[in-house]
Design brief:
2 copies of one chain form a homodimer. The first copy, chain A, is 44% helix and 12% strand. By secondary structure, the first copy, chain A, is of the alpha/beta class. The model of chain A has no long low-confidence stretch (mean pLDDT 96).
C-alpha cells in the first residue's frame, strides 16, 4: 500500500530491467564456445560489489563501471583459458555490458507506467552504458540518473536523495524499483518508497539468487506488467 | 559538410526545441488578459543571460534556472501591473517554463534522427524542468544533460566537453544543435560540430531576433525535418 502519492519511479537497471546473466552468457557462448559461460558471467558479476566498495572506501578514486568491469575481466580471463585475448577482443567483450537485453515484460510495462509517472534510472552504470542500454532495448525513460551524476555509488544516500532533489520532489514521492533488497533498504532509509521485483533467474539458476526479500517493501511485483497493474490501477 | 562521423546530437532547448515565446505568451494572455504578454515574456527572457552571468561570475552561488526565472519575475511584476499576485500565483506562473510546447516539426524530426544518432539535451534548464518539458512534449531523448549535470552554464567549456566525456566519444563526434550563434561558437571552440536551426519567430516578431548567423557552422537547417533530411540522407 502506498505511503504517499508517488511522482517518480526510479529503476535499478542491472538485473531489474536488463537480464545481464542471459545476455552475457549468450554472447560469451557465441564467441568462446569452450568456456563455461554461466560460471564466467557469474564470476564477472560477483567482482562488481567488491570493486565498487574500493571506490566507496577511497582505495580507488572515482572509477566508472566500464573501467571496473574491465579490471575484473582482466583478473578473470586466465581462470577461463582466455589469457590469449588481445586488446581489441577484451575491449569488445567488456562492451557486452552495453548490449544487455531487457526482460520481456520491461518495455510494455514501462510504457504503461510512463503515462502516469516520471520514469528514470538510478543505476551504478555509467552514463554512456545506460544510454546505450536504453537505445539497444528501446527503454522509454524520461531521464537517466547514474552514479556518475552524483559521483557516488549506491547505496550512498547521495544517490537516492539526489534523484528527489534534482527532480524537485520529496523523497517519499520517489519509489525505487529493484530486485535487490539491500538497494531497497538503503533507499527506504533515505525516505523513498520501494518496490521489489522478482527476477528469480537473475543469476541463471534460481538457486544462485539467495538474498532474502524483506517484508517492509511498499510493493512487491512479479514483473513490470504486474507493477503497472499495481500502480496504474 | 560533416567534418567527421557524428555519434551524438546535443540539442539546445529554449528556442531551439521549444517555443518559449509563443507558449508563455499564450499562458499569460489567458491568465492576465490586460497585460502586454508579448512585452512581458520578452522582458522575462531578456533577464536570463544577465542572471546566468551572475552565477558564472560567482556573484551568485550555483542557482537553478527555476530560481533565476523567479528572481527575474519578481523584478518584472511591478512593471506590468502584477504586484498584487500572491505566492501561489507567482509559483504557478514561474512553472510556465516547465510547460513550453515544442515547435511543430520537433517530435517527427527527433524520431527520425533517433534511428541513427544518440539524442540528448544540452540546456541551461535544470533537470526537473527539462524532464517536465520532455514529458509535456513527448520528446524522445536518449538522455538529458543539464547545466545542473555539470554545475556550469553554457557557454562554459565544461558543458560541451562534458557531453563528449560522459557519452565516451570524441568532441568532434558530438554536434550541438541550436538557434543561437554564441552557443554554437562556444561549442565549436571546444571541438564540437555545429548545426544552426532557423527559428525566426523565437522572440515573436522576427525583428526581435537580431543575432547574426555565422558562416562556419557545420550545417544550417530550417527546422528538425530539414536537419533529418541532411543527417539521415
Amino acid at each position: 500500500m502506498l505511503q504517499a502519492p508517488v511522482q517518480v519511479l526510479a529503476f535499478d537497471v542491472f538485473g531489474t530491467v536488463v537480464d545481464w546473466h542471459g545476455s552475457i552468457t549468450r554472447e560469451v557462448t557465441q564467441r568462446y564456445p569452450h568456456v563455461d559461460a554461466d560460471a564466467f558471467v557469474r564470476a564477472w558479476r560477483s567482482g562488481y560489489k567488491p570493486a565498487m566498495a574500493k571506490v566507496a572506501g577511497a582505495e580507488l578514486g572515482w572509477t566508472r563501471i566500464d573501467d571496473l568491469h574491465r579490471m575484473i575481466l582482466e583478473d578473470l580471463l586466465p581462470h577461463f583459458g582466455l589469457s590469449h585475448l588481445g586488446e581489441a577482443s577484451r575491449r569488445e567483450l567488456n562492451q557486452a555490458w552495453h548490449r544487455l537485453d531487457p526482460w520481456t515484460d520491461v518495455v510494455t510495462g514501462l510504457k504503461r507506467l510512463k503515462s502516469k509517472y516520471i520514469l528514470c534510472t538510478l543505476s551504478n552504470g555509467n552514463m554512456s552504458l545506460l544510454t546505450h542500454l536504453s537505445k539497444h532495448g528501446g527503454l522509454p525513460w524520461d531521464c537517466i540518473f547514474s552514479a556518475e551524476t552524483f559521483r557516488a555509488y549506491k547505496p550512498d544516500p547521495r544517490t537516492y536523495l539526489g534523484v528527489a532533489e534534482w527532480l524537485d520532489v520529496a523523497p517519499q514521492e520517489v519509489m525505487l524499483v529493484a530486485t535487490h533488497q539491500d538497494d531497497l533498504d538503503a533507499a527506504r532509509s533515505c525516505g523513498l518508497q520501494t518496490a521489489y521485483i522478482d527476477r528469480p533467474t537473475e543469476w541463471g539458476d534460481p538457486a544462485h539468487k539467495t538474498e532474502p526479500v524483506g517484508s517492509n517493501n511498499t510493493l512487491r511485483a512479479a514483473n513490470f506488467l504486474d507493477l503497472a497493474d499495481l500502480l496504474c490501477g
